[in-house]
């Protein structure tokens, strides 16, 4: 592999090229990646209702869904590939599972099948996302 040379044309004052590229330019690209994930994986650009209030509610729900996926990904172990996975990958591997869910008065019981391929990760996520226990 050869050198990976990057050129930046900017009117920003101060700073070296490496700093400008890594901290400012790449951060801008990351923001665009977040918008792309919001539109692509959550279908947040669907505002097909004829009423503006309905479209606004739909966008708000998509924003909430983005936050839930973000929290799920942030709860994954720091050095695992799940921490950087796209939302549709998380949905496919961690949410679209066969499970038995029983809702009790004080708790929710989720029973995973014996052959669940990512049972350890799911149990870790359940613990990480569970509300704090009150004394």
Automatic annotation (TrEMBL):
Residues 2-130 form the Transposase DDE domain. InterPro entries: RNaseH-like_sf, Tnp_DDE_dom. It comes from the Bacteria. Pfam families: DDE_Tnp_1_4. This is Transposase DDE domain protein. The lineage of its organism: Bacteria, Pseudomonadati, Pseudomonadota, Alphaproteobacteria, Rhodobacterales.
């Amino acid at each position: 592999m050869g050198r990976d040379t990057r050129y930046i044309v900017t009117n920003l004052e101060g700073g070296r090229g490496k700093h400008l590229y890594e901290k400012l330019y790449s951060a801008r690209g990351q923001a665009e990646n977040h918008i792309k994930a919001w539109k692509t994986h959550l279908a947040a650009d669907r505002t097909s209702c004829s009423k503006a209030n309905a479209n606004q509610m739909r966008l708000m729900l998509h924003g909430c869904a983005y936050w839930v996926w973000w929290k799920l990904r942030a709860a994954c172990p720091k050095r695992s590939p799940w921490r950087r996975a796209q939302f549709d990958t998380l949905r496919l591997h961690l949410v679209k599972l066969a499970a038995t869910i029983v809702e009790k008065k004080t708790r929710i019981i989720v029973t995973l099948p014996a052959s669940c391929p990512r049972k350890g990760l799911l149990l870790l996520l359940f613990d990480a996302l569970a509300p704090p226990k009150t004394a």
